[in-house]
Amino acid sequence: MKKTLLLIAGHLCLVLGVIGAVLPVLPTTPFLLLAAFCYSKSSNKLHLWILNQKHLGPPLRDWEKNGVIGLKAKLVATIMLSLVIVFRIPYLKVTLALRITGTVILILVLVFIWSRPSSMK
């Protein structure tokens, strides 16, 4: 039962990740990382399949083996999150406390991203 649920979650995350590759509103990387994780716990065949994909595989393998986030991915994430912080959060119709909380969370995400190595040493 657990493996079946993880397999379904892996498929769902993979679909959301692929959709996120073409829709700027939906993030790609977290869903692909979750898909790889779910597949690693439910289906060795699908786990190997996603790790060996031409475009998806290399960054997933780098993360899984060494916790590496490539420099290009870091730069894209920084630009996108900065745009959200500057151009979206200030205009949300929510309390100031929620806007501050959202900004702090996004900054912490950036700190985490930049704390990871950019390449294997």
Summarize this entry quickly.
The chain has 121 residues and is mostly helical.
Could you please describe the fold and organization of this structure?
The protein has 121 residues and is mainly α. The protein has two domains: 2-66, no CATH class; 71-115, no CATH class. It has helices spanning 2-22, 29-42, 44-51, 57-66, 71-87, 96-115. α5 (71-87) runs antiparallel to α6 (96-115). The longest helix has 21 residues, at 2-22. It is globular. The N and C termini lie far apart (40 Å). The model has no long low-confidence stretch (mean pLDDT 91).
**Which class best fits the helix and strand makeup?**
mainly alpha
Q: What is the domain total for the residues?
A: 2
> Uncertain segments of ≥5 residues (pLDDT<50)?
none
* Main beta-sheet strand count, sense and barrel state: none
- List the quaternary state of the chains: single chain
Query: Would you report the number of β strands?
Result: 0
Quick tags:
121 residues; mainly alpha; 6 helices; 0% strand
Task: Reconstruct the topology from this structure.
Blueprint: H1 2-22, H2 29-42, H3 44-51, H4 57-66, H5 71-87, H6 96-115
Helix pairs in contact: 1-2, 2-3, 5-6
